[in-house]
Every structure is written in C-alpha cells, then in structure tokens.
Amino acid sequence: MNNRPHPLVAGNWKMNGLRSSLGELGAMAQAYDSALRAKVDLLICPPATLVHAASIAAAGSGIGVGAQDCHAHVSGAHTGDLSAEMFADAGASAIIVGHSERRADHGESDAAVRAKALAAVRAGLVAIVCVGETEAQRRGGQTLGVVGNQLDGSIPTELTSAQLVVAYEPVWAIGTGLTPTAADVAEVHAFIRERLAFLLGADGAGVRILYGGSVKPSNAAELMAVPNVDGALVGGASLKAVDFMGIAAAYR
Ligand code: PGA
C-alpha cells in the first residue's frame, strides 16, 4: 500500500457554528502535532460566516479551512451566493461541492456540481466532489450505477489528482449512525478508483477517495483501513475537537 495517496480527514460543520465554536478549532490545532501532520492532512469546513475567522484561527497549525458550497461564477448579480474566488480570498483551500444535502435540498444536478468543481479549481482551490446512493437505491441494487453516473456527470475530466478529492457518502449513512460494512465500502471505493482511472487517466490513482457517513472515533480505524479509502468526510463528529482528533488518530 506504499502508493496510497496521502490521507485527508475533512470536517463538514454544515449549518452549525458561531464564533464561539472556533475554540474547538483551536483545540484541534493544539492536538495536531508534527507526528500526526506527517500522517494525515486535516481540513475543517465551517459555515461561510466563519471561513475567514477559521482561517486565522487555524493559521500555522497545518489545518486547512474549506467551504461547503460555491456559486459557479466569479461574481455578478446572484443575491446571497458566494463565489470560489471569495472563499479563496477569505483563506479557504478547498470547497465541498455536490454534498447530498445540497443535491436534495437545492436540486443540484451533476452538471451544476461539475460547474462548481471547476469554479473551485479556477480559484486555485481543491474541489471535494460528493457522491452516494440513497437507501432505496441501495436496496434496489443500483449503488454502483448511481455512483458511476454521478461521477461521470460531476467530475471535470481535466482536473489533476492535486485538484480533486472524491467523497463517497451513502445518503442513508449520513447522520444516522448507520455505516456500510467494510466489504461494501471496499466494493464502492474500488469501483470509484476504476472510474477515476477511466475519467482522468493515470492521475486517477492519486485522487483521494474519502468515505463519509457516521464516521466516529470508534469506527474510524476499521473504515480507514479499507483499500482505496484515503480518509474521511466527517459531519457531526467534526464539531468537537475530541471526536475529530479521535478520528484523525486512526492514522497515528
Ligand atoms: P455525518 O455526516 O458524519 O454526520 O454522518 C457526514 C457528511 O454529511 O459529510
């Protein structure tokens, strides 16, 4: 497993967090010692209101700060929207695009997600593209078909492995405490790896593929040991430093 991409544990705070929450980020920074830094990259994606303050709070710690979504355009008449360039200006290094909550709540299509991924990279940031099946799709045996279609539609094939991270997040595992078996995760991640090789060529081997959905300190080591799992995208357990660093500790 010598050629595995350098792992990444990314936290998605979703619509949670006030300025007072930045103390948790400070605690994460304190706990992120040089031994752990050598083994795993860390990223926290707070709500947009906190991106700039978080980038200041994390400065010098090695923890990156990211956003949870962006508009595809650089600027313009789009009330309430924020561009990738604005997040870059605020200190972000990455943007999550196509999270299932945005696909469901805002009707984001694969084409829209692809445009956002391109926008993130246009601004010099890493695009974290999320894919994953619903419970009904899994029960119907459609998991690989659904994930394959999302990848084909959402991944810009001109990206390199340094510009792109893919997160596999089964919708039914998000925030539910349920997780797929290690064998199920292995099957989907191997499928994603193959598809990335098809879409990106040789660069597909270097793209980090994160698993997301109810990752906790108690299950992180087992999930992170699965072949082609290059880290985690963590929701609820990224809000507290003790939990997030407990997950990162799977790489110690
Ligand atoms: P969860 O969320 O860890 O709370 O299940 C994961 C995600 O939505 O990224």
Kindly summarize this structure in a few lines.
The protein is 40% helix and 15% strand. The chain is built from eleven helices and eight strands. The chain has helices spanning 22-31, 34-39, 51-57, 84-90, 100-105, 110-122, 135-139, 143-154, 182-200, 217-224, 241-248; strands spanning 8-12, 41-45, 64-67, 94-97, 126-131, 164-168, 208-212, 231-234.
What does this protein structure show overall?
- There is one protein chain.
- The chain has an eight-stranded parallel beta barrel, surrounded by seven helices.
- It has a domain at 8-25 and 49-62 and 142-164 and 171-251: TIM Barrel.
- It is α/β, with parallel strands linked by helices and 252 residues long.
- It has helices at 22-31, 34-39, 51-57, 84-90, 100-105, 110-122, 135-139, 143-154, 182-200, 217-224, 241-248; strands spanning 8-12, 41-45, 64-67, 94-97, 126-131, 164-168, 208-212, 231-234.
- The protein is globular, with a radius of gyration of 17 Å.
- The two termini are 16 Å apart.
- 40% of the residues lie in helices and 15% in strands.
- It is built from eleven helices and eight strands.
- Helix 6 crosses helix 8.
- 2-phosphoglycolic acid is lined by residues 12, 169, 174-175, 212-215, 233-237.
